[in-house]
Amino acid sequence: MIRTSALRETPTLVGKSVCLVPLGPEHTDAYFAAGLDEEVRRLKGAHGHLTYEQARQWCESRAGRSDRLDLAILAPGDGRYLGELSVYAVSPENETAGYRIALSAIEFTGRGLGKEATQLVLEYAFDRIGLHRVWLYVYAFNMRAIAVYRSCGFHVEGRLRDSLLWEGRRHDALLMAVLRGGYERS
Ligand SMILES: CC(C)(COP(=O)(O)OP(=O)(O)OC[C@H]1O[C@@H](n2cnc3c(N)ncnc32)[C@H](O)[C@@H]1OP(=O)(O)O)[C@@H](O)C(=O)NCCC(=O)NCCS
């Protein structure tokens, strides 16, 4: 069984270029603004965006959730908000969970931040929570994301054909997963 205390006590995880802290009300403005970024929305396949009030409610309600992890990605130096990630759909019986990550703007991508954040969270997911399997969905056109997930030990397990209809074109999604022991420690 997994250690549910490791989900209740939301951690702060500190790396070289990112610091992961519990997502909370203080991140509302940045979280809302990130949802408006057109290119990030395309990569996530998000057709709409949250209203400010929905973003506020989401950030405020995270502390009360002991069944998932929602972390803000901050710059260690100045605390600048860089994005957020979640470990969700946790199945304690199966020791599995889903993972998602989004940096808040394209200017933050390609600098190794996503890889470092993913490595930090996988280490926590496997070593502290005690998960066996972490899975995710990614659109097949998102080569940067796929490269990061592969380099962290994820393997493609399946293809969900024509999952996304974006500006008149259909795109496949990939199911990827990493098992405990199969991930790259930082
Ligand atoms: C996906 C995401 C988290 C990746 O984080 P990142 O900080 O941008 O990625 P990194 O800089 O850590 O690593 C990028 C890697 O992709 C590679 N890469 C970049 N563009 C690529 C491309 N077109 N094809 C193949 N590889 C590519 C880089 O070479 C690098 O690999 P390396 O470390 O082996 O050199 C981030 O880009 C993001 O949040 N994007 C916006 C939202 C999104 O796409 N979320 C994921 C939804 S599933």
From TrEMBL:
Residues 18-181 form the N-acetyltransferase domain. It comes from the Bacteria. PROSITE patterns: GNAT. InterPro entries: Acyl_CoA_acyltransferase (IPR016181), GNAT_dom (IPR000182). This is RimJ/RimL family protein N-acetyltransferase. It comes from Nocardiopsis terrae. The lineage of its organism: Bacteria, Bacillati, Actinomycetota, Actinomycetes, Streptosporangiales.
